[in-house]
Specification:
The structure is a single chain. The chain folds into 2 domains: 171 residues, Rossmann fold (3-Layer(aba) Sandwich), CATH 3.40.50.1400; 153 residues, Rossmann fold (3-Layer(aba) Sandwich). 45% of the residues lie in helices and 14% in strands. It is built from 12 helices and 8 strands. It has a 4-stranded parallel beta sheet, with helices on both faces. It has a 4-stranded parallel beta sheet with strand order 6-5-7-8, sandwiched between helices. The C terminus is likely disordered.
């Protein structure tokens, strides 16, 4: 058996739709200092005194609307991707979630006990953000240092504009763009503006000017917003989408602090007033359908757009098990097993 293996890491999900399981998930998620980045005493009070008394019941109701016989859509899809990759590549592929189960410690412990010495981490997040990509990578590093210190780790960098990722996205969306539509909305997961500033290694670029993400952005390797723009540029170029027929928005904001704008929910209500009646929405932050795509966009977003006067709302599913997405992942796995570079650098990496 090869001493090399691959670890896929996605965000995670509650173990069930029970309020207790949703509360456990939200507690672990929100107590992460890279998600809610307040000092620990403040974070503890906000999470345990303000959010957890009410939010779990509301979120449990939302999860019930998208739950499947296999459980969480995000976890179920990720399991299928892992199994397909392992079968097609012949490599050892393990799966973990940043929050809840299957857990990162369990995955690393299992690989350690199998004699794995070299590990490739593929974060299932195309873009860098401290609350997704970075927290997953750092958690894996912490666990390896603690329970498998002899194991080496290689990390696939963000692939937000990698040609194979973009090709998979455009192929996945093609059938939704073949019918007439008025506008294509790219809805990315939002992050607080302070996260963007914290991830700016210069400390003086992000959000300092209106066009800070344009041109040769000097901090694109850690700037979530710049990477989102690069994804849209690459996608619309490959799919031949005119500039006047697409736009960008950011969803899933939490709390009162300013998050990246414009906000998706406000955009969905405004588009019909601007004459947009037939809308296609794509959510490139997510590679697996989840609460944010299926419930927030597929149910509430659709309802908001139609209630505002829209006539046709088409939501492009996530990459999930799309053949070209799996082919991209398989190449990463095969290259690692063959001791080739994990990911050829793009202009931004």
């Amino acid at each position: 058996m090869s001493a090399r293996a691959v670890l896929l890491v996605n965000l995670g999900s509650p173990d069930s739709t029970s309020v207790a399981d949703v509360r456990a998930y939200l507690r672990e998620f929100l107590m992460d200092g890279r998600v809610l980045d307040a000092p620990y005493p403040v974070r503890w009070c906000v999470v345990h005194l303000s959010i957890l008394p009410r939010r779990p019941a509301q979120s449990a109701e939302a999860y019930e609307k998208i739950w499947t016989p296999e459980g969480s859509p995000l976890v179920a899809t990720s399991r299928k991707v892992r199994e397909t990759l392992q079968n097609r590549s012949g490599a050892r592929v393990e799966l973990a979630m940043r929050y809840r189960n299957p857990s990162i410690p369990d995955a690393v412990r299992k690989l350690r006990d199998e004699g794995i010495r070299d590990l490739l981490l593929i974060p299932l997040f195309p873009h860098f953000a401290m609350s997704s990509f970075q927290t997953a990578v750092e958690r894996v590093r912490e666990v390896i240092a603690d329970i498998a210190p002899a194991m080496t780790l290689a990390v696939v960098p963000p692939y937000f504009d990698h040609p194979e990722y973009i090709r998979a996205m455009t192929a996945n969306a093609s059938v939704y763009l073949q019918r007439d539509y008025d506008h294509l909305l790219f809805s990315f997961h939002g992050i607080p503006e302070r996260h963007l500033r914290k991830s700016d290694p210069t400390g003086r670029h992000c959000l300092e000017t209106p066009d800070c993400c344009g041109g040769a952005c000097p901090v694109v390797s850690t700037c979530y917003r710049a990477q989102c723009y690069r994804t849209v540029e690459a996608f619309t170029r490959m799919a031949s989408i005119p500039k006047d027929r697409h736009s960008i928005a950011f969803q899933s904001r939490l709390g009162r602090d300013p998050w990246l704008k414009p906000y998706t929910d406000m955009v969905l209500e405004a588009l019909p007033k601007a004459g947009i009646r037939r809308l296609v929405v794509i959510c490139p932050s997510f590679v697996s359908d989840c609460l944010e795509t299926l419930e927030e966009m597929g149910l509430r977003g659709r309802q908001a757009f139609l209630a505002a006067g829209g006539k046709d709302f088409r939501l492009v599913p996530c990459l999930n098990e799309h053949p070209q997405w799996l082919a991209f992942l398989e190449k990463l796995v095969r290259d690692f097993i063959a001791e080739k570079p994990a990911l050829p650098p793009t202009a931004a990496n």
